[in-house]
Each structure stands twice: as C-alpha cells, then as structure tokens.
C-alpha cells in the first residue's frame, strides 16, 4: 500500500508552505542557501513506516535576464523499497525575488512505470500561462491558460505562505490562495487553527502556527481539509511537520535537518544547521 502514497510527500511539503488573495511585497522569511530535509512516513494500520525523503532548497539565479530565486524540490523513497516501487520526483521553479510570483515551473514525475513531465511558463504581460505536458506513451499536450493575479505553483506557494502575517488572523479564518495544479487554476484556502507546541525527542518545545489547507480532490486526496501543517512561529516560518489523510491511510512529513536559515536571532533554531526529531 506504500507505493501510491510515497508520491504524496513532495506535494504535501510543497503545498504546506490564504477574505481575498494577496501578493507579498517583500520576502522576509528565507534566503538563498537555505536547505530543508524531511523524512516521510506512511501509516500502515497502527504503525508509521519510514517511506522516503524530501529535500527543498533555495538558490540565487536568473531567468530570462531577470534576478530570480530558484526553488528546487526532490523526493525519493527509501532504497529498501526500490525493488517494489522506485520513486524519483523533482520540482523546479524560477520565481520573482520580490513578489515570489513564478516565471517558470517544471515538474518531473518518475514513479515505477509512470513518467510525466509538466512545464509551465507564466507570462506577466499577456496574463497567460503556457503549458507543455508529456506523459509516457502519449502525445505532447500544449495549452494556454488565463492567469489570475497572485497565482502560484505547488512549489512557490510553500515559500509564499511563509511570508504571510498570521498575527492579523483569528483562529478559524480562511486565507485564500490561487494555485496552479495539473494545468488548472484552483481557488483554495488555508484555515488558520491557532498556535500549538510540538515537543522534540530532545525535550525542546517548538511553538507552531497550525493550519489546514483545502485540498484538490484527485487520485491522492479525497479533497476537503484533510491536511494539517505546523509552521514554526518565528521569523523563518519553517514547516516543522505536515500530516494528511490519503485515499488509504495517511502520510506524514517531519523536518529532519536544516541549514542556511535567514533569521537566526529571532528563531527557535539555535544553530545555522542541525537536526530535529519530533516525538511520535
């Protein structure tokens, strides 16, 4: 049962990262050189089984002569499962350094015998998104989608949410976002659930902003608010843990290591690099 749910890990962490959709004016939460690594788990009955690893990184770059952030995510299952189901997925996005609006998004899915390549080009002048989708043994599909203000892909949205000012929202507030998922723009939201602390195995407590995103119904999720995200309540706003129900069972992503944090003075993380272990 693990094989289908390993593919959720990248999407969970990327998505975790919404009255009227809004754009940020300036990034204050992260910087180039940041690298976050997560361990993925699948709940099999009453047992949480280690299933894979997800890595998210930020680099300074350029896109068509414009300064840009290069967001990169990769996910893989643990090597012990390669004989059963080999997964190697990657997400790549070039985004505006000020607004985090995406210029280009690339998603490569390699899961056992299933292979797909999604590409999206965001045209700010014509307010359109051009897409190219290639699936194994099928013709290449080209399309043009009408873009909407402040629309993000499933990777850049994670970094956008980290810059939201949650202090102005009350518990239960819906914060809307506009997100491109599988060649379609969806009007989604996250529901702010207030503050909650998470205890580590080392005995440290992490105060977190807790929220539940609205999911798109599909082959992985039933839809609705079946995901919970815990975001560090400091200036870095790092996803500490993400948990979601899937069609069969549930999956969880837990922060394992980090480096290159932008804000080290007002932070729950005492060092520029380290390890985090969440108590089960």
Short description:
With 280 residues, this protein is mainly beta. The chain is built from three helices and 16 strands. Pfam families: DUF3108.
Notes on the protein architecture:
This protein has three helices and 16 strands. The chain has 280 residues and is mainly beta. The chain has a 16-stranded mixed beta sheet that branches. Strand 2 and strand 3 form a beta hairpin. It has one domain. Helices cover 7% and strands 51% of the residues.
Keywords:
single chain, 280 residues, mainly beta, 16-stranded mixed sheet, globular, disordered N terminus, DUF3108, DUF3108 domain-containing protein, signal
Give me the secondary-structure topology.
Elements: H1 2-6, H2 8-16, E1 35-44, E2 47-63, E3 66-77, E4 88-96, E5 102-111, E6 114-123, E7 128-135, E8 141-146, E9 151-152, H3 156-161, E10 174-181, E11 184-199, E12 205-213, E13 227-232, E14 239-245, E15 250-259, E16 273-275
Parallel strand pairs: 9-10
Antiparallel strand pairs: 1-2, 1-15, 2-3, 3-4, 4-5, 5-6, 6-7, 7-8, 10-11, 11-12, 12-13, 13-14, 14-15, 15-16
Q: Which stretches of 5+ consecutive residues score pLDDT under 50?
A: 1-6, 15-21, 270-274
Order of helices and strands: HHEEEEEEEEEHEEEEEEE
Approximate helicity band: under 10%
Question: If you compute it from the alpha carbons, what radius of gyration comes out, rounded to the nearest whole angstrom?
Answer: 18 Å
**Helical run tally:** 3
Amino-to-carboxy terminus distance:
21 Å
Helix/strand-derived category reads mainly beta
The major β-sheet equals: 16 strands, mixed
Count of individual beta strands: 16
Question: What's the domain count?
Answer: 1
Estimated share of beta-strand residues: over 45%
Shape: globular
- The overall pLDDT average reads 80
């Amino acid at each position: 049962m693990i094989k289908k749910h390993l593919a959720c890990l990248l999407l969970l962490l990327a998505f975790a990262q919404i009255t009227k959709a809004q754009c940020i004016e300036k990034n204050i939460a992260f910087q180039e050189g940041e690298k976050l690594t997560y361990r993925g788990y699948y709940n099999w009955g009453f047992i949480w089984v280690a299933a894979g690893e997800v890595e998210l990184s930020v680099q300074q770059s350029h896109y068509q002569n414009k300064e840009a952030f290069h967001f990169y995510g990769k996910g893989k299952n643990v090597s012990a499962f390669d004989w059963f189901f080999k997964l190697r997925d990657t997400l790549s996005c070039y985004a505006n350094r000020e607004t985090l609006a995406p210029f280009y998004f690339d998603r490569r899915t390699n899961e056992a015998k299933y292979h797909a390549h999604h590409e999206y080009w965001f045209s700010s002048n014509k307010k359109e998104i051009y897409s190219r989708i290639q699936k194994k043994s099928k013709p290449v599909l080209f399309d043009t989608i009408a873009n909407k203000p402040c629309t993000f892909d499933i990777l850049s949205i994670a970094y956008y949410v980290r810059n939201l000012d949650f202090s102005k929202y009350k518990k239960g507030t819906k914060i809307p976002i506009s997100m491109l998922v599988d060649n379609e723009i969806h009007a989604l939201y996250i529901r702010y659930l207030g503050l909650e602390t998470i205890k580590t195995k080392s005995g440290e407590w992490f105060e977190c902003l807790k929220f539940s995103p609205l999911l798109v119904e599909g082959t992985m999720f039933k839809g609705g608010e079946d995901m919970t995200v815990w975001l560090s309540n400091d200036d870095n706003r790092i996803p500490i843990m993400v948990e979601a129900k899937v069609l069969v069972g549930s999956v969880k992503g837990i922060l394992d290591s980090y480096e290159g944090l932008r804000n080290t003075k007002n932070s729950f993380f005492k060092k520029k690099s380290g390890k985090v272990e969440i108590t089960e």
